[in-house]
Design goal:
2 helices, binds zinc ion
């Protein structure tokens, strides 16, 4: 039974990239020419930044559990 593809991993990855792109576009928009119709304020940038960080954290948390389950037989259990 192969678990090479995980739908949750893919979804979380996509979500993270989406949020990151939103942040990058918003962050770069202040110097863009012609100026965009909507210029993101600092508060808005902070929200987007936090959202992308949250998405990354969520992805990491899932990935750990996900890979932990996948590589069951390669147990690196050197805890005291
Ligand atoms: Zn997964």
């Amino acid at each position: 039974m192969s678990r090479e593809f995980c739908q949750t991993c893919e979804s979380l990855k996509e979500f993270y990239w989406l949020k990151l792109n939103q942040f990058l576009i918003a962050a770069g928009s202040s110097s863009a020419w012609p100026p965009p119709l909507h210029v993101a304020g600092e508060e808005e940038l902070l929200v987007l930044k936090n959202e992308s960080l949250d998405a990354l954290r969520e992805l990491m948390r899932h990935a750990k559990a996900c890979y932990g389950l996948t590589i069951d037989d390669v147990t690196v259990d050197d805890a005291a």
